[in-house]
Design goal:
The chain is mostly helical. It is built from eleven helices and two strands. The chain has a two-stranded antiparallel ribbon. It is a multi-pass membrane protein.
Length: about 290
Amino acid sequence: MTALSEEGARPTTGPPDPAAPAGPAPRLPGLVRVAAARTRLEFLSFVRERSAMVFTFVFPLALLVIFGSALHGQPVAAGVDYEQYFVAGMIASGMFGCSFQNLAIVIPLERDIGGLKRLAGTPMPKSAYFAGKIMMVAFTASVQTVLLIVIGVLFYDLTLPKTVGPWLTFLWVAGLGTIACTLLGIGVAGIVKNGRTAPAVVSPLATVLQFVSGVFFVFATLPSWMQGIGALFPLKWMTQGMRSVFLPDSFAAHEVAGSWEHGRIALVLGGWCLVGLFVAVRTFRWRNRADG
């Protein structure tokens, strides 16, 4: 009897009973937490790529110094010199570069090395990847804008608005323009064949748009066919919106329409947000075409 009791008290070490109820499944982190982790990873990757970081921030400043110095003091209109006009255009161009140009080149490179394919196979919400990219765009565009404004104020007599209205205009133009260009950058990233061809396709396109959108030259002095091409794309309307913020109200008479056209700027940029979203949804790929 005692032996039986001792044997019955002995713990079993065999396989678990398959009929036993399973424990609760591990709870996955929420979208906000995952998006924050992706944002941190994007930031660390950006900081570690010193050449990319320097190019992102230094290249627009170098262009501003070169063009501003070469054409220093040349009047565009009464009370407005070329360098002041150029600073406003470069602020918009910087936002365009941080969003459209950067994403359309970086995302295909990430897809080539298999990074997107691996992410797609994890439980991570796919929206967290895009949230990280958007937050990185917002950070780089903000820093670059501050640097350009500081250089403009210190060296090129750029006058900052003294009332709330122009700053509100700055916010909605920057917001709509950056969203539109971010979505377009994601969309174009899905169209280009691979990471090797992305810079060859995207960089010339971005440069042409800068020339026909009134960044380097006064838009009203461009040939009408160039104005027509520039008016099709968001960068032209972003530069016009930034001019309305940083240039005197009297300069509106020198715009093609003779006014700042804030209503049209909002409509065009909002429309490009919808176009960019449609293109991004339809074209984005997590795998290379060779992967199937």
